[in-house]
Design a protein that fits this description.
By secondary structure, the protein is an alpha/beta fold. It has eleven helices and ten strands. 47% of the residues lie in helices and 17% in strands. The protein has a six-stranded mixed beta sheet, sandwiched between helices. A four-stranded mixed beta sheet has the order 4-6-8-9.
Length: 260
Amino acid sequence: MAYETLKYELEDGVGILTIDRPKALNALSPRVLEEFSAVLDGVEGNEEVRVLIVTGAGKAFVAGADISVMAKFDSLEAKRFALFGQAILNRLGSLAQPVIAAVNGFALGGGCELALACDFIYASEAAKFGQPEINLGVIPGFGGTQRLARRVGLAMAKELCLTGDMIGAEEAFRIGLVNKVFPAEELMAAAKKTALGMAQKGRVSLREAKTAIEQGIETDLAKACAWEADRFGICFASPDQKEGMTAFLEKRKPEFKGGF
């Protein structure tokens, strides 16, 4: 399927979704969000897609939501736009597949929120992060106030959201926003290497590990560990568990097929 604002390709089980509006610094317009949703339609439940990478074309990951569109909103339109963006990023965050953000440049406002909706973030040394909405007289609307606090802690999230300051990749790494930082020319190769490694794991165990972490972090430890035990048991209904443990005992590399 051809897209106006995105590129999507699948190679060796790894989907690569590139926001492709470089002249607009990949700003998240309603059209971008609609096409992003269409890509997710094809990824959800697709066993051929084992891992997804999200990145941006040109010198930006995503520089934010499209201000030229938002400037015309009234209060109700703004709320609807926020809910629309949140719904799409919630879908991204709840994918069964692992999702890596490969942040190649500016990840500001909605771009930072998009990266936060991914499972983890790899960044170029040139990457810049921030929630600068306060400088426009508004606040983050695509989940930034919530996901950022969960990622970096309450006080740091408040500082970023209340000052609107932009930080570099190394500072983002220091505060736990970013997992790893790479030279610009090595970023996509590193993201693909990690993605290909995960793509070779058991599909069920990937899904259940991600689910256990996501669900457990929202509840108390006792309930979370009970949830983990449930997920652990589910893995034993998959042929991949048999293959993984048999391969270990036979001292060979497992060949995971997925499914139950």
